[in-house]
Amino acid sequence: MAWFSAFPIRLSQEGDLKGELPDELGNLKLEKVNVHNNSLFGTIPIPCSILSTMNMMELSANQFLGLLPSTIGLSLPNLEELYLGDNRLTGVIPCSVTNASILTILNMGPNVLTGAVPNFGNLRLLKRLLIEENNLTGESSGLELRFFSSLTNCRYLELIEVSLNQLNGILPASIGNFSISLQVFRTFGCHIKAAIPDEIGNLSSLADLYSDSNQLTGFIPRTLGKLRCLQRIYLEYYKLDGFIPAELCQLSNLGDLYQRNNMLYGSIPTCLGELKSFRRLYLDSNQLESTVPLNLWNLKDLLEVNLSSNSLRGFLSSEIKNLKVVNQLDLSQNQFTGDIPSSAGSMQSLHNHFDSKKAKIIQKLPKSEISLGVAWRRISYLELRKATNAFSETNILGSGSFCSVYEGTLYDGLTVAVKVFNFQSERVTKSFDIESEITIRYRNLVRIIGCCSNTEFKALILEYMPKGSLEKWLYSHNYFLDMLKRLDIAIDVALALEYLHHGLTFTVLDCDLKPTNVLLDQDMVGHIDDFGIAKLFGQGESIVQTKTLETIGYIAPGDVPYRDS
Fold first, then answer.
1. Exposed, middle or buried: residue 534 (CB in 10 Å: 0-12, 13-18, 19+)?
2. Burial 213-236 (b: 16+ CB within 10 A, else e)
3. Helices and strands, number each (H, E), in the chain
4. Same domain assignment for residues 358 and 226
5. Domain finish residue from 463, 479, 505
6. What is the pLDDT of residues 43-72, one digit of tens each?
7. Residue range(s) defining the domain that contains residue 307
8. For residue 3, which of 74, 295, 339, 508 sits 20 to 30 Å off, Cα-Cα?
9. Is residue 512 included in any domain, yes or no?
C-alpha cells in the first residue's frame, strides 16, 4: 500500500481506502490521521515513538478488529482527539490511554470492548467521553460505579455517553460534582440500579438526560427542577414510583419528557400545561389517575402525546382541537367518559383520523372492571412472534398443562414474559378469562402489561422476572438463599396475600400458591403469579369454604375461616 507515503504531515481520506494500515505509518511525522468511514481492516498498528507528533487520530467507521495496543497512550503524548468507534475492537481499554494527558475527545464506541471501565481521572482536559455500545462493566468489587467519581476531575467535561454496556452498578452521589459544563449525560440500557441521586440537580448546564431502560427505583428527584437548561428527560422503562414532581414545571426549556412504563401514580401536574416548549410527552403505562389538565390541550406545538394505559378519567375537552400539529396521540386504556369531541376533526396533522381506532380512546368500563385496574397494552400476534423468535424453544421460561411462557423483547425494547395458553379445552379458556380479570397492580403481584387474544390464540404479556421462580432458588443445587432472604420473600408473599384478601373491595383467593408461582425480580423481591384457578368473592358473598383445584406443589393455607360479609 503506497498511498500513505504522499501525506508527510496529514493523512485524510474517506470512502475508498481498503486493506490494512501499514506498519510504516509509524515512520511518518504525522500530526493528523483521518481515515474514517472506509473499508480498512486488520489490527491497529502499535504506534511508534515517531508518532509522538500526532494530535488527532480518526479511525472510526472501518472494520478494525483485535486488541488495542497496550501502549497506545504512552506512544501518543500529544494526542488531543482519538476516534476508534464503530469498529470491531475487542479486549479491554488499555490503562495507558489515561497517559495521553491532553486528550479532549475519546471515542471508543460502538465496539466489542470488555472489562471494567478504567479510571479516567488523569484526563483533566477531557470534554467528550464516548464508550457506548460495548460490553464494559463496572468494578468487580462493590456496586458503586467508581469510574463516574473519577470523571469529577475532568473540569471541562461536556458529554458522557456510556449507554448499552453491562455496568450493573449504582450511580454515586459524586455525579453531582461533574463539570458545570456537562450538557449531555447518557446512561441508558446499562443495568444501573437503585435510585437516581438527588445530587444530579447540581449539573446546572445539563440539557440531555438519557437514562432509560435501566433498573432504577425510587422517586424522580425533585432536584431536576433546578436544571433550567434541561431540554430532554428520558426516564422510561424503570421501576420509578411516586408522584410526578411539580418541580419539573420549572424547566421552561423542556421539550421531551419520557416517563413511560414506570409505576408513577397520582395526577398529572396541572403546571405541565404551562410549558410552551413541550414537543413530546410520554407518560403511558403508569398508574396515573384523575383528569387530564385542561391547559395541556393549549400546547399548540405538541407533536406527540401518549397517556395510554393509566387510570385517567373524566370527559375529554373540546379544547383538544388546539393540538394543530400533533401527529401521534394515544389516550387508550384509560377510564374516560363520553364521546370523542367533534372538534377533534380539525386536527389536520392526524389526517382527520381521530376516531376510536386511530386515536385509541376507549369508553368508561363497568364499575366491576374499573375496580380491577384494567389498563393494558394491545399487542399484535406478529409483534409477539418477532419478540419471542417465533416462540422458539430457546426462549421458553417454563411450561405446564395450561400454558407455555416465553421471554421476549417488544418493539420498544421492553423485556417481557409472554404467557401463551394451550388452546385445547374449555378449562384453559376459563383460566385465561380469570387471569385476564385479575389485573390488580400491587408491588408483590406480577403485573400484566398487555394481551393478545383472538379465536385461535390467547396470550398475556407479563412483567419479566429476571431471577426466576422461588422453586429454583430453594431446590436447585447451584442456587442458595440464606435465612434472611427467605424471610424477606416470605414477607413479600404474605403482604401480597393480605392485600388480595383484605385490601380490595372484593376478595381474591389464589388457590394455587406454591414456590413455582412465586417469581423474583432483579432485587430478589417476591411476586405472586398465576391466578388461573383463583376465586373472586364480591360484596354480599360469604366465604364459608372453597374447593381448590390445586396443582402439584400447592401450599395449603389451612382451613379458610368463616367470614360474614
1. middle
2. bbbbbeebbebbbbbeebbbbbbb
3. 7, 36
4. yes
5. 463
6. 877 554 445 678 888 888 888 888 988 888
7. 219-364
8. 74
9. no
